[in-house]
Design brief:
- The protein is mainly α and 135 residues long.
- Helix content is 54%, strand content 0%.
- The protein has helices spanning 4-17, 21-29, 44-50, 54-62, 77-83, 90-97, 112-119, 122-132.
């Protein structure tokens, strides 16, 4: 039977994917670690980035989540935000403003900045070029 922390992590991940700010806040207020990761290294921040949910990203970061946790493939939440952006830049902008590294390579050497270029994500490429990103 899974432990209580494991079940609560599932709740946090689902709330982050649903962009449910109230549920995320409630779980954090109950003491759940905002940086807890599952067996593959995915955190709620990865899933909030996938959902393009700037509000949950901000909440998790303000609660103490590390901005650049890596999953088992070396991808950071910024990588996920870039991959799932679909023309929306708010999630990427929040992560960059919090200090996410646009030049952090995953295990195959692809950085979020390079991923944006490869995907032809002009808005994101422009955001990186504006100097919003470090480097």
């Amino acid at each position: 039977m899974p432990g209580k922390a494991h079940l609560r992590l599932g709740d946090l991940i689902h709330a982050a994917l649903a962009c449910d700010v109230c549920a995320v806040r409630r779980l954090l207020d109950d003491g759940l670690d905002p940086g807890i990761a599952n067996a593959q290294g995915f955190t709620a921040l990865h899933f909030a980035a996938q959902a393009r949910c700037a509000a949950v990203i901000s909440l998790l970061l303000h609660a103490g989540a590390h901005v650049d946790p890596r999953d088992d493939w070396g991808n950071t939440p910024l990588s996920w935000a870039v991959f799932h952006a679909r023309g929306e830049i708010a999630a990427v902008a929040v992560l960059l403003a919090a200090g996410a590294d646009p030049d952090a390579p995953n295990h195959v050497g692809v950085t979020p900045r390079e991923l944006a270029e490869r995907l032809g994500a002009d808005k994101l490429t422009a955001l990186f070029a504006q100097g919003t990103a470090r480097g």
